[in-house]
Design a protein that fits this description.
Helix content: 40-55%
Number of helices: 5
Strand order of the largest sheet: 1-2
Shape: globular
Distance between the termini: 47 Å
Strand content: 5-15%
Number of strands: 2
Radius of gyration: 18 Å
Order of helices and strands: EHHHHEH
Length: 144
């Protein structure tokens, strides 16, 4: 049986500090140019290139590997679909990539990501790099 999804902090019954906190993503999306698709750009289907730009403009993109390596396999699946492969056969692979990259509401809950209006992107990246150990240290206070 799958574990229950985390509730927002104001709906929680137990108020103890969660192991992993929420990560606030900028609702406006990622700023900047997307990483380059591997190989020659002319080899990629125009719809795949447009999809790639849309993906890298999404709010979730601030949490992905900025080299684009984690999205290449997903791009290859989308390329196959755009070239005429059976979309039904590719749907499970697409769903897995969406879950892995936080591209649907279920995945965002599992990853504890939420969209907020005003979070500067460098702050989100700094939080991602800090990890939970630093976040725990931030909550500690010095007692004499």
């Amino acid at each position: 049986m799958a574990a229950p999804y985390p509730k927002p902090d104001d709906e929680r019954v137990r108020r103890n500090t969660p192991t992993f906190g929420w990560v606030d993503l900028p609702a406006g999306g990622r700023v900047g140019d997307p990483p380059k698709l591997p190989g020659k750009l002319a080899e990629w289907h125009p719809e795949t290139r447009a999809w790639w730009r849309r993906m890298w403009a999404a709010p979730q993109a601030v949490m992905w590997d900025q080299t684009g390596e984690t999205m290449v396999a997903y791009a290859r699946v989308m390329e196959a679909v755009h070239r005429g492969a059976d979309a039904v056969r590719c749907s499970s692979e697409i769903r897995q990539h969406q879950d892995r990259h936080g591209l649907n509401p279920k995945a965002m809950l599992q990853l504890r990501w939420r969209l907020v209006e005003a979070v500067p992107e460098p702050e989100v990246v700094a939080r991602r790099r800090r990890g939970t150990a630093s976040a725990m240290k931030d909550r500690l206070t010095v007692v004499e």
